[in-house]
């Protein structure tokens, strides 16, 4: 019989499961970011103990490996206090005529809807190092952003 018509099992046709990708660069975290990672690990460990489904346990263990890696590589970083924008600072600025406020946080703590953007985002990279009163280039415009306050 031809190999093309032989089927050993259903498992050989499943998509492979890969590890969750880690963001590149340093794993900077705020104290709140470290607490979120610790809470996520604790929740996953509880779920693993409580679930009886082997496939679900495999998925949870994969997620747990991701968060444990993030935990051991975390570098807790204090906000800059010299008036320049850096990791952990809350910034008020105008962009496109609208006033906005964001906090620069770690990749895992980011929540753009709540005003927390990752320090690796293009907007955050454009703001880094600027001070209140300065204009910053962004999206091809030299004066796209005006920094109002840095906390």
TrEMBL record:
GO process terms (BP): DNA-templated transcription elongation; regulation of DNA-templated transcription elongation
Transcription elongation factor GreA/GreB C-terminal domain segment(s): 82-147
GO molecular function: DNA binding; RNA polymerase binding; translation elongation factor activity
Annotated spans, Disordered: 1-26
Bias type Basic and acidic residues, positions: 1-16
Keywords: Elongation factor, Protein biosynthesis
Listed name of the protein: Transcription elongation factor, GreA/GreB family
Organism, as annotated: Sphingomonas palmae
């Amino acid at each position: 019989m031809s190999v093309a018509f032989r089927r050993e099992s259903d498992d050989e046709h499943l998509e492979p499961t890969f590890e969750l990708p880690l963001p590149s660069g340093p794993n900077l975290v705020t104290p709140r970011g470290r607490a979120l990672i610790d809470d996520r690990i604790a929740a996953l460990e509880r779920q693993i103990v409580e679930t009886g489904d082997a496939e679900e346990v495999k998925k949870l263990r994969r997620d747990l490996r991701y968060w444990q890696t993030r935990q051991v590589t975390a570098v807790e970083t204090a906000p800059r206090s010299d008036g320049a924008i850096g990791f952990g600072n809350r910034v008020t600025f105008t962009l496109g005529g609208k006033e906005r406020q964001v906090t620069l946080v770690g990749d895992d703590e980011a929540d753009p809807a709540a005003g927390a953007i990752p320090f690796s985002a293009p907007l955050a990279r454009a703001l880094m190092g600027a001070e209140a009163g300065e204009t910053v280039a962004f999206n091809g415009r030299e004066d796209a952003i005006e920094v109002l306050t840095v906390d």
